[in-house]
Structures are given as C-alpha cells and as structure tokens.
Amino acid sequence: MSNLENLRKQAKQYLRWHREQYYPVAAIIREHLPRFRQLSDPEILAAAFRLADAQELVARKEGFAGWQALRTGANTAMSQTKASTPPILTSIAAHLFVRDLKASTDFFTAKLGFTIDFIFGDPPFYGQVSRDNARLALRHVDEPVFAGQVREREELVAASITVATAGEIKELFLACQAAGVPFHQPLKKEPWGARTFIVKDPDGNLILFAGPAS
Predict the structure, then answer these.
(1) What's the whole-model pTM score?
(2) Distance CA 155, CA 206 (A)
C-alpha cells in the first residue's frame, strides 16, 4: 500500500478536481462512494464534497471501508468483496481530434443539438459534448492526425451513434439537413438492413448515425 502521506495528497487532489469541476472525477466518485452511485456527472459535481469524502474515496480504492481503517491498516471484508466483483463499465465516449475546440463545440451544439458537458484547460484543450446517451470527447491537436485524404477515401468513421426506430433516423437526418450540416453520405438503406447517414465535422471527422430501416 502507498504511504499515508501520498494517500493524503491523493485525497486533496480529488477534492481540488471536484472544486474545479473536472468532469472525469465524477465517474471515479460514483464508482467508489455508494451515496453518489445513482447521481449523474453534473449532479455529482454540484453536490457537496468535503475532504472527508475525498479521504473515504481514497480508502475505498485501496480496499478499506474508510479512512480510519486505512490509517490503522485494518483489513476489511470489503476488499474481498471488491476482488470478486467484476468492474462495471458505466459509459463510453468516442474521441475526436480537433484543431479549434470552440469551433468544434459550436458545431456540435448549434448543428447537431449536443450540449457542452465540460471544457478543460487554460487555454482549453479538452472537452466533452453529449446528447442523450451519446458522448463525444474533443481533444485539441495542432497537427493533422490523418495523412492526405485517407479518412474520406477509406471512410474511417470516428464515431457511430444509433437511434431506436426508423422514424427517428429519418427525423434526425432531416433535422441535420435543415441545419446545414455537411454530409459525407446522405441517408441510405444498407445491405444489412439499417439506414445510415454520415456527417462531417469542421475537422473532417466522420460521424455515422444509424437506425432500423423499418
């Protein structure tokens, strides 16, 4: 186990991240502190979170029931339970590489109906947008990630987003069309029975939307 001073520093780091509204810390808090388990990321970041909570978080990550148990080195049944419980994946976000973070967030919010979850850095270099259960992480880069036209030529899709019904995929396509979204591929029926269309963001990232054909 790490020495106690390092663990104290970890707790203070989690506390600072929460105060700074650093979005990734919300998932860590939800995973290890039961009272936050049913809260969304924004709800966790808006909730009260004290040093004692951060210390409990660190203790539970180390396999102890609480900070006092960690300090005294007392083993608990919790560590055994944790070892036998497989990890639960709670969310997924596709990562898009962008040259201009503001232009990218403006595109996804104004054109595709996403909302900004967070923007991080000074100057900003990382952010996340979401719509319903779809999340897109945006990472600033200064140089092109793909060489030449290989992305369009090979149709290298950066993210795939699905809807549940044929009516929804058609409605979504028409909404994108009305908003002036650039298309790499218009709505079409695929040989495997789905209907898809592909949009292109300001950096050339290809995002596929799919739904049932009928």
Answers:
(1) 0.65
(2) 7
Domains and CATH numbers, the chain: 4-84 (no CATH), 94-212 (3.10.180.10)
Phi then psi for 121, rounded to 5 degrees? 110, 155
What residue ranges of the chain have pLDDT lower than 50?
1-2, 74-81
Extended beta strands in the chain, E state: 94-98, 115-121, 124-131, 134-140, 157-162, 183-189, 194-200, 206-212
d(CA 77, CA 24): 28
Contact call for residues 183 and 198 (beta carbons, < 8 A): yes
**What is the Cα gyration radius of the chain?**
22
How many CB atoms within 10 Å of residue 117? 18
Q: Cα separation of 54 and 189, whole Å?
A: 51
Model confidence pLDDT, tens digit, residues 162-193: 999 999 999 999 999 999 999 999 999 999 88
Contact 210, 196 (CB under 8 A): yes
